[in-house]
Amino acid sequence: MYEYKRSQYDLHSIKLAPNFTASEFMCPHCGNVFIDGRLVSGLQQLRDVLQAPIYIASSYRCPEHERVVANTSQSVHSRGLAADFNLGRIKLILNVFQMCVPIFHRVGIYQTAPGIGFIHVDMDTTRSHLYWLNNRVRTGRDAYEYYDSVELLQKAIRQQRPAVRWATIVI
Q: pLDDT by residue (tens digit) across 52-65?
């Protein structure tokens, strides 16, 4: 685990991996960093495969911030095991999802606006491998659909066409 307090360190200068600094994982509420090294290594591995920058939208959340964002104080984000990211809208979300599956324990796909989304990855090994879809555009709120296998998720995506065009969403 990497743990840094914003008041004690210059988080922009601390490299956690060749392409990631501690500041990319800090809580937006308190500015502190508490992040699992396996998650950082996985994101670096993905970045190397993609040969493109990864933009971390959300990673560590202190318990106070987590209560505001997710209505809980304990989640994979507050335990330093998760990150939500995008790539600046340069890749198709399903292609990136496939690259994430062998690296991370759990992977979720989100559509946040028509044709635009992000991916959640985490290293929570206390839960079985889970994959999920969350289409905020269609429902106007978080509406999770969980799957125990990649095959079941892919089947659900095929069944949702043409209502949701997952294959055209960029990340």
A: 999 999 999 998 99
